[in-house]
Structure of Formyltransferase/hydrolase complex Fhc subunit C:
Amino acid sequence: MNLIELELVQAPRFRIDMRSIHPTDLATRTASQIEHLELPIGRQTIPLGELFKVRCGNDDHSDATIRLRGDCQSCDSIGHRMSAGEWIVEGDCGDYLGKEMQAGSITVEGNVADHTAQAMRGGQIKIRGNVGDYLGGPASGERSGMSGGEIHVSGNTGNQTGYRLRRGTIIIEGNAGKNTAAEMVAGTIAIHGRVGDHMGHGMRRGTILLSQRPPLSPFGFTEPRRESPAILSILLTQFSQITNGESQFVNQLQTNLHDSHRVLGDKAVQGQGEIFWFANEFVA
């Protein structure tokens, strides 16, 4: 394996733009060459080696695995437009993780700030901690949010999760904030914990799976009906593959596969989005 380790020497007082650091690029470089790469700091740049201790074993030219260590809350845009390879972040990190990501994988052992997976197109992101606002949302000035890929969050997410989601899958083991799946166009969101107000507001299509009955407006969604459609079995298989069996939600879905409630909406926009929740949690 072509492993490259970047250890933050000291947490800086400024933001670090990591968008130029790609596994495919670092795979062919020596440690010295990596240290001399310039990182944007506002309108200036700084050599990577002044911020990070670099260790690498370039035993081949395959796509690299970059392991980032330290308190990296000031590191933004990790995995920006990533097309191959792997990032492993052993700690917290900043905004715009996985922005416009196309392929490859990112694993974060800590928490992530806002705008994670903005306009994501493919690949896989696993976050062991919590995530801030706007997970899977659109890039600035764009209408469509995440259009592909898979995200698994072990903790909670903030507000506006899955805003204008077009395709892809988001699995959240904890709670999700307000306006989750607002204006959702397609794709799938699964949430094991609680959800905030205004979930699914303006959603047109797509599928949401919940452990608990959500706070929904009767004017926006149909009356609940007890159903057990075949799509749930298909999603169970997909979720099991994404989470590698490390999911409370998957376990609960398997237990309640043939006992769920379903509503459609948002009726205000003639939407046909589906929301399911397990009947043994809240029986209407």
Observations:
- Residues 114-278 form one domain.
- Residues 231-243 form the longest helix (13 residues).
- The helical segments are 23-26, 31-35, 231-243, 248-255.
- The chain has four helices and 17 strands.
